[in-house]
Structure formats: structure tokens, C-alpha cells
Design brief:
- There is one protein chain.
- This protein is an alpha/beta fold.
- Helices cover 29% and strands 28% of the residues.
- It is built from five helices and twelve strands.
- Strands 1, 2, 6, 7, 8, 9, 10, 11 and 12 form a nine-stranded mixed beta sheet that branches. A three-stranded mixed beta sheet has the order 4-3-5, with no helix packed on it.
- α2 links the parallel β3 and β4.
- The protein starts with 7 loop residues before the first strand and ends with a strand.
- 38% of the residues are buried.
Amino acid sequence: MTAIQNRTLQFQDLGLMEYEAAFAFQEKLMQKIIDLKLENRSKTPDLQLETPNYLLFVEHPHVYTIGKSGDEQNMLANAEKLKEINATYVKTNRGGDITYHGFGQLIGYPVLDLDNFSSDIFLYMRNLEEVIIRVLAEYGIKGMRSEGETGVWLDVGKPYARKICAMGVKTSKWVTMHGFGLNVNTDLRYFEYIIPCGIRDKAVTSISRELERTFSDDEILDLKIKIKKHFCDVFEAQII
């Protein structure tokens, strides 16, 4: 447990960035926190330093990523097709199965020391879902949880249930990386080349599809403000 709980978030919008570069950046931040936590272990509580927390926004070019426990049979496109659609395929260290990241998707990577909040990964995932559910509600979209299926869904329990936000994380020493991918203006045709999250019988949607219009740049900026606000509310944090 961290002696001094720090609930401030250092925010950075990375803009458009290749997946591997963003992954390396997250790992660097994560290791910085872990190193500080290990260093604190050798100090008395009054000498321990608070650990930082980060919230990153990013957009990736077309990429399919698969988690460490994912089934590669859920990738339906071969190397030739990937080249044709200008997409890459990356094996990563998060939980979860296969998903797609690309233009028009808002990705959030919280790199948090959960000892600053609550050392409970189940609660952490539910809180991430709660952030997105609250954000969607501001647009008149009823986001929901689907039992046993991480992420945020619409019309759960109905034949046309569909996922609007995928989630997958990794933790080490209670420090998180990876996070959520919220479909905004996402080209949903790219999901046709995978079995998203390994779930065969449910579709994928986006804010744009649900509202039947494309979000402008200004609206995306406003969406980011809403996500930051609700993230701070749910996690009882403050962006500095």
C-alpha cells in the first residue's frame, strides 16, 4: 500500500500515434511508478514519495491487437488482406482477446497506481465502464454492462446487443496500463476481419452510428472533456 495516496492525474493527449510507440510510452510510465513503489519499500512512511498517475488519450492507425490469452483464430484476415486494408497485427500483454483500433476511435490509457485508489482490479474495470456509461448518457445513449463480458454495451439481453467500447488492461504491482477504446467515428467495417473480443454472436457499434451523424473535430474535443470529467468523478481524482 502506498503510504501517501495521490489522486491527481497527469493528462496528455498523444494525438495520432502508432500502437507500438504508445505501448512503449505506457511501459515507460508504468516502470517509473513501479520503480518508485519498490524504492518506497525501503523507506519509513514519512520518507516515502507519492507515486504519480497518468491519463493518456491517443488515436491509432489501423491495428488489430490480441491479448496474451487471446485466440489467434479470431483473426480472420491473412497477411495479404492486412496489407490490402493498410492494417497491422500486434500481440500485446493486456488481458482480453482480439480487438481493432483505428481512426475515429478515442482510446484512453490510464496508467495508475491503484494503491492510490483501490487495489481491486474488478472494481477498477467496473469503474472504467462506469466512466463510459456516464459519458454516453450525455448523448442520450444507454450504455450497459453485460455479465461476463467486459466493456460497455447497448441493448444487453436483446438479439441486437452490440459493443460500443472495448476494454483490456494489464497490471503489475497494482500499476495499470492499456485501457478502453471508444468507437466514435470508427469505420466499423474493420471489425469484419476479426471476431471482436472472441464473441461471435454480438455486433459492434459507434457513437456516430447510434446518433446517425459524424462527430466534428469540435465535438470530439468536447467528448474528451466529458470523459476527463467523468473519469475524475468516478475515481475521485483531479487532473493537474
